[in-house]
Amino acid sequence: VEIRPGDVPARSNLGTALAYLGRNGEAVAVLRQAVELDGGYVPARFNLGLALMNQGERGAALKEWREVVRLKPDHGEALTQMAWVLATSREAGLRDAREAVLLGERAAGL
Question: pLDDT > 90: what percent of the chain?
Fold first, then answer.
């Protein structure tokens, strides 16, 4: 990343590794940089959603996964994560059982 700062896959991998280490704040920052460099790079956007979720930012995570599914409609993991958030969120504005079921069924059909 230091040698090739514009290398989106490398930046995405670094952010993902930081998230796995529990360093979610750093992961979010690095993954946001990757998304800024290439908003269509699905792995960075999906993993940004996971890191945001780990920080309790469900709404922001849901936004990232919606964009993942817009870019790649058959992304089963994003569909599943969205369904989970919509089905289990304590925030009334995020909870949507009907959409959660539809997304879960869509993911199951892949």
Answer: 90
**What is the average pLDDT value for the chain, to the nearest integer?**
95
DSSP letter for each residue of 53-108: HHTT-HHHHHHHHHHHHHH-TT-HHHHHHHHHHHHH-SSTTT--HHHHHHHHHHHH
- Buried (b) or exposed (e) across 14-48, using 16+ Cβ within 10 A? bbbebbeeebbebbbebbbbbbeeeeebbbbbbbb
71, 45 contact by CB (below 8 A): yes
- Residue 3's pLDDT band (boundaries 50, 70, 90)? confident
Question: Which amino acid is it at 75?
Answer: H
Q: Distance (Å, rounded) from C-alpha 51 to C-alpha 58?
A: 10
Residues 101 and 104: their CA atoms lie apart, in Å, by 5
